């Protein structure tokens, strides 16, 4: 197949899933064309089946807001026509699904029928999408998609609850590539972070409010009072400087390292003992799956799709959103005993195997084939 993938090229979960899916499809011999405004963060190598088409938005003094959606639709028309794509797969509804719809209509005037699949990732439904600013366009473009997928059952239910969706929605969970995410020997790094063999806790995110990063800091304060430990805060975003202030006021700065955005996240996960994800809302929790693949159990909230990933008392624990005391108590239960910690680590790895790329990729390929057969 010749597949066009549209996504945000940043470190955000939807862009990561789109890029990893494209890379895996290319490995299977499909031709994959990424169409976005800059090189996707994880598209960092050359392959004969992978192509990147940059959407450039022309600026003009009249524009307070440059019309990215129009530029993207025009680029889609161009790439579909000249690369003779079979199918478009857009990740994150806003504005990718409506741009794909527009491109489809334009291409029809050239006698070209291009089906498009929309994958909903989370905030495109739960936060941004259901806002009246975007809702009519999101509803329309979901209904006009030739196929719709969500990354969890919970996100499917949320979509059906908040939008008047007529299309059938298929749940295809996120996945992990064990070729990249697996425990790596990084003892020198572990020694540098935790010279006295302290436990290492980790949080990775875009530091937006929805991630409740200050709960991570508050939880760590409580854990650190009982168990000698260090906290790695990976990523960057609006809450970071507030979190740094919070560490100062809680007097734990010497135990917390803010590492900023990191490419080789699997190396940092490899030295970690426990992953913290107290999110307000989380459609799937890909970052927790990446941790589990590296044998790192997870303390998460029970929001959104997290119960479809985390198994309470097996590969981690779940608490109600905001219940920092409960999260800290459960973290201490896992961390205080080597044997318990090792069991949770092994279980995390086993749980991650349920989401092995090798199991999920064929589901996407079957879905594409069904859509193409329907045309
Ligand atoms: O977590 C974010 O804010 C980024 C966001 C995205 O769309 O890039 O992530 C969402 O998609 C990920 C991949 O499917 C999911 O694993 C995340 O749970 C989801 N985030 C939220 O629902 C808040």
From TrEMBL:
Boundaries of every Glycosyl transferase family domain copy: 188-351
InterPro entries: Glyco_trans_1 (IPR001296), Glyco_trans_4-like_N (IPR028098), Glycosyltransferase_grp1 (IPR050194), Thiol_BshA (IPR023881)
Domain of life: Bacteria
GO MF, one example: glycosyltransferase activity
GO biological process: bacillithiol biosynthetic process
All copies of domain Glycosyltransferase subfamily 4-like N-terminal, residue ranges: 11-180
The protein's name: N-acetyl-alpha-D-glucosaminyl L-malate synthase BshA
Source organism (scientific name): Pedobacter duraquae
């Amino acid at each position: 197949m010749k597949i066009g993938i549209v996504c945000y090229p940043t470190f955000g979960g939807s862009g990561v899933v789109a890029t990893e899916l494209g890379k895996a499809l290319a490995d299977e011999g499909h031709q994959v064309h990424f169409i976005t405004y800059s090189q996707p963060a994880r598209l960092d190598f050359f392959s004969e089946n992978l192509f990147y088409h940059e959407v450039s938005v022309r600026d003009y003094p009249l524009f307070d807001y440059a019309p990215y959606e129009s530029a993207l639709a025009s680029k889609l028309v161009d790439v579909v026509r000249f690369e003779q794509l079979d199918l478009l797969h857009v990740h994150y509804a806003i504005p990718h699904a409506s741009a794909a719809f527009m491109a489809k209509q334009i291409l029809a005037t050239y006698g070209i029928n291009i089906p498009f699949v929309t994958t909903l990732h989370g905030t495109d439904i739960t936060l941004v999408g259901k806002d009246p600013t975007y809702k009519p366009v999101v509803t329309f473009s979901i209904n006009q998609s030739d196929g719709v997928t969500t990354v969890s059952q919970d996100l499917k239910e949320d979509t059906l609850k908040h939008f008047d969706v007529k299309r059938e929605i298929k749940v295809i969970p996120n996945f992990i590539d064990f070729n990249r995410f697996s425990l790596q020997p990084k003892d020198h790094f572990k020694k540098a972070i935790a010279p006295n063999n302290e436990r290492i806790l980790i949080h990775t995110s875009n530091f937006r409010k929805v991630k409740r990063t200050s709960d991570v800091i508050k939880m760590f304060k409580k854990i650190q009072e009982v168990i000698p430990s260090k906290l790695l805060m990976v990523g960057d975003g609006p809450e970071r400087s507030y979190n740094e202030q919070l560490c100062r006021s809680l007097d734990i700065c010497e135990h917390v390292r803010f590492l900023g955005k990191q490419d080789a996240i699997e190396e940092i996960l490899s030295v970690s003992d426990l992953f913290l994800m107290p999110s307000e809302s989380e459609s799937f929790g890909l970052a927790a799956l990446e941790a589990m693949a590296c044998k790192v159990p997870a303390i998460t909230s029970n929001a959104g799709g997290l119960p479809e990933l985390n198994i309470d008392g097996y590969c981690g624990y779940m608490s109600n959103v905001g219940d920092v005391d409960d999260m800290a108590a459960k973290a201490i239960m896992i961390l205080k005993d080597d044997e318990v910690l090792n069991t949770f680590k092994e279980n995390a790895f086993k749980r991650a195997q349920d989401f092995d790329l090798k199991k999920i990729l064929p589901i996407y390929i079957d879905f594409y084939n069904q859509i193409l057969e329907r045309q």
